[in-house]
Amino acid sequence: xxxxxxxxxxxxxxGGRRVRYPNLGSSFTVLDMDETVTCFCRKARRKDKEPSSLxxxxxxxxxxxxxxxxxxxxxxxxxLVDLPPGLDYNEWLAxxxxxxxxxxxxxxxTISEFCTMSGCxxxxxxxxxxxxxxxxxxKKTRVAAPQYIDYVxxxxxxxxxxxxxxxTKYANEYPSSFESIVRKILRLLFxxxxxxxxxxxxxxxxxxxxxHLNCVxxxxxxxxxxxxxxxxxxxxxxxxxxxxxxxxxxxxxxxQQPTAAVxxxxxxxxxxxxxxxLVAEQTSLLIASTHTQPPHGHEVIAQIGH
Length: 306
Prior knowledge:
Layout (H helix, E strand, L loop, with lengths): L8 E5 L2 E5 L8 E3 L1 H8 L36 H5 L7 H23 L11 E3 L3 E3 L1 E2 L5 E2 L3 H16 L17 H22 L1 H6 L3 H18 L4 H4 L3 H6 L12 H11 L9 H16 L4 H9 L1
Antiparallel strand pairs: 1-2, 2-3, 4-5, 6-7
Helix pairs in contact: 3-4, 3-5, 3-7, 4-5
């Protein structure tokens, strides 16, 4: 692309690197994404030999500015999570729960070949978090990540396909325990997201799917912030990502004050000054003429001109 001799310098930043080309202008900078990801996740390549090499002390790639993107940046996700007037609350929960399941299952499916029994012997998340599976009898079991996620997806698919829990026919109603069931599903799906960010974000970036993953995470975070379905002790492990993506930021209240001031000025606008004496005299003459003479336009105009 460039002819002649091209000089370049490499600058390290937080484990990654930027490549600068001084003789092409100071502003010409290329972010070496693959090298950045590789530097942050070198230990991930040795999973098979060292299953426990990934630890929360490793740099968090998902917090790097270069990957803090999400699809649909121009759409306000808050509008998508607010319950529309007149819509049933349980119906709103059901539609979003199914959407979260579909999207998270889809993203995980793209990197599932990298999530192996030997590479992920435990279901882990950021902050030394390890998830244990509870069976139908309440017995907790330590299982590998792919097995845990398979349990999550199987349980969720079976639940949302149950007509007695997620009704699709008009005559059927939602059970009284529906919200608690949704809480359990969303909690388990959040565990999958936590594992994706903690152990497989490198693969997600290399597949150029990090924007989609961030968008799903932002959607779930806003939905949970609106309806408080997942406990804070579960979501706190990714609170730094919430801050980095600026998901819960709102506009300061003072920014709304100028609009109110403008509106108050419009309301308080004084009435226009009275017309000059000549106009007032002509106007009164016009009114008098309309009461004393037939409504002929040329006669009225003649009197005003006079």
